[in-house]
Design a protein that fits this description.
Layout lengths: L2 E8 L3 H12 L2 E8 L2 H9 L7 E4 H5 L9 H9 L3 H5 L17 H22 L3 E5 L4 H12 L3 E7 L5 E5 L8 H7 L7 H11 L2 H10 L4 H14 L4 H4 L8 H25 L10 E5 L6 H4 L8 H10 L6 E5 L4 H5 L4 H8 L4 E4 L5 H7 L2 E4 L4 H7 L4 E3 L11 E3 L6 H9 L5 H13 L2 E2 L2 H12 L12 H10 L3 H14 L1
Parallel strand pairs: 1-2, 1-4, 2-3, 4-5, 7-8, 7-10, 8-9, 10-11, 11-12
Antiparallel strand pairs: 5-6, 6-13
Helix pairs in contact: 1-24, 6-7
C-alpha cells in the first residue's frame, strides 16, 4: 500500500523539487497545501511535473466567508495544546512595527486564524497522511501546520540546515536531530584539543557563508530594475485584495517605501560608522551579546518572549556582575537584510552606562576571545564561542546546549544566577568534538545556501521580487540544472522506508 505524503509548498521551491525527484523513485500518493501569490498560483494549477492527488490553496480559503463560532479557537487550543494567540502576536504580518502597510484588528486576526485552523484540520482529517514533508518553518501559518501535524501524531520529515558547513539532516523537529540527547549521552568523548576543533570550525563555520549570502542577495542593479518593471508594469497587484499578507501594499506605496528605506539605510549606516566602537578595548571584564537580525524566525518563533532586543539588552545589563560591561554588536546582515534599526534604538542602548555598541564589521571571534561569557538569544554564536574557549548562554531551544559549557536560559528570573554560574564553567574541547561527530554522522551534504542563491537568481530576480509568473519549462530547466536534488530525494526515501 502506498504511503500518503503531504507537502507544504510555498515560494521556496525546495519542497516541490523534493516531490519531483521523490516521485520518480518511490511509490507514494502526494497531496499538497500551497501558499503562494496569485502570479505563481497558475503554475501549481496547471503543472504536470508532479502528480498531486489533491491540492489546496491556502489563500483561497482565507477569502471565503465562514460562520464564525465564538469558542472555536479556544477549543482548538485546548484540544491540541497550541497557543494560537502567542503565535499571532509574534507574526511579522500582524506586528505594526514590522508591517507598515496595514494594521490588523484583533477581529481580523481571529477570523484569519479560525479559517486556517478549520482548513488545516479538514486537510489532515481527509488525507490522513503517513508523512508531512517540509522545509524549515519560517512563517506562522506554516509553523502552526507543522505543530498540528506533530500533535496529531503525523510523522514529520523536515529538511534542516545543520548550521555546520554544507551539512543538512532530516528530522521531526526544527533544528534538532532525532534522538540527539540519547546519542550524546551514549557516546564516549574522544580526546582532542582546542587547536583541532578550531581547525574544524574554520572549515565549516556557517556565519561567514551567511554574510557572503547576504552580500550577494539583492546586489544586482539590473535584477533590481527588472523586478521593478515586473512589479510596476506587468503585475496587476491582485494580491493586495486576495492575500492578507499583501493588504495595503499598493504599487506606489511599495515603491515609495523602498526609496524611503534606501535613504534610511544610508543615514543609519552613517550613524553606525560614526558612533559604534571599531576596536575592542578590554580594560574591564565584559560579556558579549550579539543582536539577531530582525524580523526573523530565530526571534519570532524560536524566542518570542525576547523579540524586543532593546528590552533584552536592558534586562541583561541589570543582571551583570559588578564591574562588568555588556558589549553589544549589531548583526552584520541587519543592513543588507533589514535596513538597519532606527537610530532612536541605538541611542537608547548608548544611554545605558553598562552597554558598549560594537560596529558590525568587527569580527565576532575577536570579541568572543576577549569576553568572559557570550549570551545569545538564538543562532550559532553560542556554539562558536565554545570553540574559542568561552562559555555561553542561549535563550532559544538548541541542541548544542548538550555541550556542558553552553547553558540554556529557561526563565528571565534565573538569568543573574545563570550568568554567575556560567562564568565559572570550563570548556571541554572533547565535548565539542563529540557533538560535531554525532552531527556529521547523522547528516548529509547539501549546500542549502548555495541552493537558495540558485533559485533566487533563477526565479526571483536575485531575491528582489517573489510575486512572479513561473512556467513549467522554466521550472523544468531549474530541476535539470540542480541534479544534486536527486540525492536529497534519496535521503527522504531512506527516512520514509526506515519509519
Amino acid at each position: 500500500m502506498s504511503n500518503r505524503v503531504l507537502f507544504w509548498l510555498d515560494a521556496e521551491p525546495t519542497a516541490f523539487c523534493i516531490a519531483y525527484y521523490l516521485k520518480k523513485i518511490h511509490d507514494t500518493d502526494f497531496f499538497t497545501l500551497v501558499d503562494v501569490t496569485n502570479r505563481q498560483k497558475s503554475f501549481f494549477q496547471s503543472q504536470k511535473l508532479v502528480e498531486f492527488k489533491k491540492t489546496w490553496f491556502y489563500h483561497d480559503v482565507m477569502n471565503q466567508e465562514i460562520k464564525s463560532e465564538p469558542d472555536y479557537l479556544k477549543s482548538f487550543e485546548e484540544k491540541y495544546d497550541i497557543d494560537l494567540w502567542q503565535l499571532a502576536k509574534n507574526d511579522r504580518i500582524f506586528i505594526d512595527y514590522y508591517n507598515t502597510f496595514y494594521k490588523f484588528s484583533d477581529h481580523e486576526i481571529s477570523e484569519i486564524m479560525e479559517k486556517e485552523c478549520r482548513l488545516f484540520e479538514e486537510i489532515l482529517d481527509e488525507v490522513k497522511p503517513d508523512f508531512f514533508i517540509t522545509t524549515q518553518t519560517a512563517f506562522r501559518p506554516h509553523h502552526l501546520f507543522y505543530l498540528l501535524c506533530k500533535k496529531k501524531g503525523i510523522k514529520v520529515l523536515m529538511l534542516n540546515s545543520a548550521n555546520w558547513g554544507k551539512h543538512c539532516y532530516i528530522s521531526g523537529n526544527y533544528h534538532k536531530l532525532d534522538n540527539f540527547n540519547e546519542l550524546f549521552a551514549n557516546r564516549k568523548a574522544l580526546p582532542t584539543t582546542f587547536n583541532d576543533i578550531q581547525n574544524r570550525l574554520e572549515s565549516k563555520i556557517l556565519s561567514k557563508k551567511v554574510s557572503k549570502f547576504y552580500q550577494s542577495h539583492k546586489n544586482s542593479k539590473i535584477k533590481l530594475m527588472q523586478a521593478a518593471f515586473q512589479l510596476l508594469i506587468l503585475s496587476d497587484n491582485s494580491n493586495e485584495k486576495t492575500h492578507y499578507t499583501y493588504y495595503g501594499r499598493k504599487k506606489l506605496k511599495v515603491l515609495l517605501s523602498e526609496i524611503n528605506n534606501s535613504i534610511k539605510r544610508w543615514y543609519r549606516k552613517k550613524y553606525i560608522d560614526q558612533n559604534f566602537l571599531q576596536e575592542i578595548i578590554d580594560d574591564k571584564p565584559f560579556i558579549f551579546l550579539p543582536l539577531q537580525q530582525e524580523p526573523e524566525r530565530s526571534l519570532l518563533l524560536s524566542a518570542p518572549d525576547y523579540k524586543n532586543q532593546i528590552e533584552t539588552v536592558e534586562y541583561v545589563s541589570k543582571c551583570l556582575p559588578e564591574n562588568f560591561l555588556l558589549f553589544v554588536k549589531e548583526h552584520p546582515t541587519q543592513g543588507s537584510g533589514r535596513d538597519w534599526r532606527e537610530i532612536s534604538q541605538y541611542k537608547a542602548l548608548q544611554n545605558n552606562p553598562k552597554v558598549r555598541l560594537i560596529h558590525p564589521s568587527v569580527p565576532a571571534d575577536e570579541i568572543i576571545k576577549k569576553s568572559k561569557l557570550v549570551i545569545s538569544v538564538s543562532g550559532t554564536i553560542a556554539l562558536e564561542s565554545a570553540f574559542l574557549n568561552t562559555p555561553s548562554i542561549t535563550i532559544a531551544d538548541n541542541d548544542y546546549t548538550l555541550i556542558p559549557s553552553i547553558s540554556r536560559l529557561n526563565s528571565k528570573n534565573e538569568l543573574q544566577g545563570l550568568i554567575e554560574n556560567s562564568l565559572e564553567k570550563k570548556v571541554e574541547p572533547s565535548s565539542i568534538g563529540k557533538y560535531l561527530d554525532i552531527l556529521e554522522e547523522n547528516s548529509f551534504i547539501f549546500d542549502y545556501l548555495e541552493f537558495q542563491v540558485s533559485y533566487f537568481n533563477h526565479f526571483y530576480f536575485s531575491g528582489n521580487l517573489v510575486d512572479v509568473e513561473i512556467s513549467e519549462s522554466h521550472m523544468k530547466e531549474f530541476l535539470i540544472k540542480n541534479q544534486n536534488l536527486k540525492n536529497l530525494a534519496q535521503e527522504f526515501k531512506k527516512r520514509m522506508i526506515k519509519n
